């Protein structure tokens, strides 16, 4: 028995959980069953995935395939060959061999499309990462979403989301890959807009869906182009497959009508899918707004599924990128995104939004690594980042959960780091695990992020300074700066959140802008406006509260509030929030300390269902990097992937450590104790208010898109509306003219033709009748007529 033979169950198990929860509606009212089925499915999928990874690491993927082929040959000799031939086709492909199974899916003309799964080293590594991270997120969600009335629906969605990602990873061809890719886009839309009755949530969901569709359409064109050239979309090196050496050589030496190499054109079109899915500049704007979804969704998108898919697309189709000259474009986009997003993160105040821009930056590291040829380094960082970023996002959810016990369900307070402080005293487990994730992300020595990030910097250094590539030099310097910024802004975050006095009881900040109120759905089917009373908890309304457009329903741990954007001089902009009672009354209400009897006035630790996943992820964030610790002589991941990684460079490692310590030290000096009150001005803002305002406002990219793309869209919509109305007027005019002509025709036909014909007929009849009187057959009548004629 081989785990590979049962790998098809890995995506099927969460898919079955989705179907089971969805189509048995009573489960929506049985929370334990819904979460239990989803978690059990993920646990089994995780065990299978790790079994596949261990078997691949010990026996090798080619060995497993050879054994399977030998077994089937023996079975064929025993008289069962036809059955096995019908079940699937076996071939070697990918990096260092692969185990594959496929079946006939559709036949059109002389082409036979096959679907199946393929397991090679990068696939096995991704399966292990995705399943474990997703399992932790599922367990965390059981506690986090406990008070949501649509608990079952949430677990059905995240099960489908995970199944789509696993199906994409296992796909043996780009068609199935793209189908699962699009299913993830659908799931992200459903989950980001999970609280659809909130204006900000459905706007963020729509923004994510439309923005990623731009990249997806271009990616689809790349698939069409690749299929036209190869006649296949199947991964593999055999003849007729897309990694075949002869095919790669042909598209790498042939130019198209645009004067570009065919391989370059295909690679750039495929890369646009990565730009959209992995939120690279300029299609990055959707990812920070995805914070509108529940926190487990943020963790799932930022760590295990959505954004990881884009990086995996480049890694999976890497031979096509190598065949052309598209990699410099990949490196430039990734490098720019890494620095751009890190700068923005420096000036954000929302705990989840800081992590969101951190994700953008780290994805830039991965993409840049792939762009300079660091295939192993890019995949290595993708794997380690998934664990410590999932840890940080779930940890931020635990922090918000604890904060809401003290400040209520107002995200303007519960998610603003300026209102936190000294949380290490109240939430020790969350603090310890969060610190592990922080140190891993900051690149602290021996933590997971240190090893993977250093490998990327070493690759860039080798390409730039050893090979003499100017691009490599730029990538190395820029990524080193981004690494320094990462250590700085993460130190800023943890210093303000876990140290200093607790500031949750401070008076509400008044430097907020007001926005229009949007009516939201209430429990009884009516509409309520933010500020309306009606929540059973007895909260009172703060007249100058940060504007809202509706709240998600939930109980004490429904801290799944929408993120607000900060911009300008500490101005909270575009705010739309969620609070509500445990019975999901969606009347928007703010809780203020001193008025809500149910608030404990102190943060508290989260339940074990939320802290257990943090502990599991912390282990991998701490020790996960040792799978490829070069100076210790450990190269397990490189050997597993069948590719050589860059040699450990003590110079780049020393520089990386110095930059990490410099960022940590500067962040600590500036922000430890910097906020004694929540209304205090940020030290960086005090030093450089203009720069801070630009960074806080995200370089104005969203506003620029609104003023250009958005305005052009509005103009185009207006023009099309005018054109549509003009067409309608013409069509209506033609209809009216036709109606008039038909009436004239009716009058002419009725009064002239019909009545004229009838009159002529009547005259003819009367004439005939008169003439008939002269032909009586009597001789005396004829004599009288002759006499009368003679007289005349």
The secondary structure category is mainly alpha
**Whole-number average pLDDT?**
81
Major beta-sheet overview:
2 strands, antiparallel
Shape: elongated
Low-confidence stretches: 63-96, 509-600
Rounded to an integer in angstroms, the radius of gyration calculated over CA atoms is: 35 Å
Strand order of the largest sheet: 1-2
Task: Tally the beta strands.
Answer: 6
Question: Can you give a write-up of this model?
Answer:
There is one protein chain. The chain has 792 residues and is mainly α. Among the domains are: 1-77 and 122-192, no CATH class; 716-791. The protein contains 28 helices and 6 strands. The protein has helices spanning 9-23, 31-59, 61-87, 121-144, 151-170, 174-192, 199-230, 245-251, 262-277, 286-289, 295-304, 306-316, 318-323, 327-345, 351-371, 375-407, 411-414, 423-426, 428-442, 448-466, 470-498, 608-623, 636-641, 650-671, 683-687, 689-696, 701-773, 779-791, and strands spanning 99-108, 111-119, 520-521, 527-528, 565-567, 571-573. The strands form 3 sheets. Strands 1-2 form a two-stranded antiparallel ribbon. Strands 3-4 form a two-stranded antiparallel ribbon. The termini are far apart. 53% of the residues are buried. InterPro entries: NADHpl_OxRdtase_5_subgr, ND/Mrp_TM, NU5C-like, Proton_antipo_N. The chain crosses the membrane at residues 6-24, 36-54, 123-142, 154-170, 176-197, 257-276, 297-315, 327-347, 354-380, 428-450, 470-490, 614-638, 650-671.
């Amino acid at each position: 028995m081989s785990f590979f033979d049962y790998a098809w169950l890995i995506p099927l198990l969460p898919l079955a959980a989705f179907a089971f929860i969805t189509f048995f509606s009573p489960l929506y009212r049985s929370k334990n069953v819904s979460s239990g089925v989803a978690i059990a499915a993920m646990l089994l999928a995780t065990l299978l995935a790790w079994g596949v990874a261990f078997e691949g690491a010990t026996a090798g993927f080619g060995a497993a395939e050879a054994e399977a082929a030998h077994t089937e040959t023996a079975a064929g000799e025993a008289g069962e060959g036809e059955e096995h031939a019908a079940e699937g086709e076996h071939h070697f492909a990918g990096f260092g061999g692969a185990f594959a199974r496929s079946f006939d899916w559709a036949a059109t003309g002389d082409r036979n499309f096959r679907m199946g799964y393929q397991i090679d080293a990068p696939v096995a590594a991704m399966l292990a990462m995705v399943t474990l991270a997703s399992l932790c997120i599922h367990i965390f969600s059981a506690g986090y979403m406990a008070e949501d009335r649509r608990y079952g629906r949430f677990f059905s969605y995240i099960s489908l989301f995970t199944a789509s990602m696993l199906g994409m990873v296992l796909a043996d061809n780009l068609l199935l890959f793209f189908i699962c890719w699009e299913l993830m886009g659908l799931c992200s839309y459903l989950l980001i807009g999970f609280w659809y009755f909130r204006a900000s949530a459905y706007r963020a969901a729509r923004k994510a869906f439309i923005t990623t569709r731009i990249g997806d359409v271009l990616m689809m064109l790349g698939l069409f182009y690749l299929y036209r050239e190869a006649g296949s979309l199947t991964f593999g090196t055999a003849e007729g497959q897309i990694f075949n050496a002869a095919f790669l050589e042909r598209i790498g030496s042939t130019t198209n009508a645009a004067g570009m190499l065919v391989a370059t054109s295909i690679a750039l079109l495929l890369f646009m899918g990565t730009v959209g899915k992995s939120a690279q500049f300029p299609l990055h704007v959707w990812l920070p707004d995805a914070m509108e979804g529940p926190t487990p969704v943020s963790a799932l998108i930022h760590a295990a599924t959505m954004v990881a898919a884009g990086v995996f697309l480049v890694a999976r189709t890497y031979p096509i990128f190598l065949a052309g000259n598209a990699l410099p474009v990949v490196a430039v986009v990734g490098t720019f995104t890494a620095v751009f997003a890190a700068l923005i993160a420096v000036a954000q105040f929302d705990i989840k939004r800081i992590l969101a821009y951190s994700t953008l930056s780290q994805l830039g590291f991965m993409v840049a690594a792939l762009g300079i040829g660091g295939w192993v380094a890019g995949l290595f960082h993708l794997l380690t980042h998934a664990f410590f970023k999932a840890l940080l996002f779930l940890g931020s959810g635990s922090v918000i959960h604890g904060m809401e016990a003290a400040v209520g369900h107002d995200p303007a307070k519960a998610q603003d780091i300026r209102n936190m402080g000294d949380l290490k005293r109240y939430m020790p487990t969350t603090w310890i695990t969060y610190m592990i994730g922080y140190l891993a992300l900051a690149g602290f020595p021996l933590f997971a992020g240190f090893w993977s990030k250093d490998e990327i910097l070493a690759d860039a250094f080798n390409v730039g300074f050893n090979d003499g590539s100017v691009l490599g030099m730029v990538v190395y310097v820029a990524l080193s700066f981004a690494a320094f910024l990462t250590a700085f802004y993460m130190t800023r975050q943890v210093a303000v959140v876990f140290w200093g006095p607790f500031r949750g009881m401070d008076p509400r900040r008044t430097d907020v802008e007001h926005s229009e109120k949007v009516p939201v759905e209430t429990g009884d089917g009516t509409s309520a406006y933010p500020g309306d009373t009606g929540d059973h908890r007895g909260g009172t309304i703060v007249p100058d509260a940060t504007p809202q457009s509706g709240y998600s329903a939930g109980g004490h741990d429904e801290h799944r509030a929408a993120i607000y954007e900060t911009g300008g001089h500490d101005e909270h902009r575009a705010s739309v929030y969620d609070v509500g009672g445990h019975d999901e009354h969606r009347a928007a209400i703010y809780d203020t300390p001193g008025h809500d009897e149910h608030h404990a006035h102190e943060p508290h630790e989260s339940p074990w269902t939320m802290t257990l996943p943090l502990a599991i992820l912390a282990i991998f964030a701490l020790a996960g990097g040792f799978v490829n610790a070069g100076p210790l002589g450990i190269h397990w991941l490189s050997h597993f992937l069948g590719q050589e990684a860059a040699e450990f460079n003590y110079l780049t490692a020393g520089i990386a450590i110095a930059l990490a310590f410099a960022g940590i030290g500067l962040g600590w000096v500036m922000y430890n104790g910097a906020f004694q009150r929540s209304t205090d001005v940020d030290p960086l803002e005090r030093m450089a208010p203009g720069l801070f305002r630009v960074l806080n406002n995200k370089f104005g990219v969203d506003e620029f898109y609104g003023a250009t793309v958005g305005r052009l869209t509005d103009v185009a919509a207006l023009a099309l509306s005018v054109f549509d109305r003009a067409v309608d007027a013409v069509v209506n005019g033609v209809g009216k003219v036709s109606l008039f002509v038909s009436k004239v025709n009716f009058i002419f036909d009725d009064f002239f033709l019909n009545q004229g014909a009838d009159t002529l007929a009547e005259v003819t009849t009367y004439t005939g009748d008169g003439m008939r009187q002269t032909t009586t057959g009597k001789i005396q009548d004829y004599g009288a007529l002759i006499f009368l004629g003679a007289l005349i």
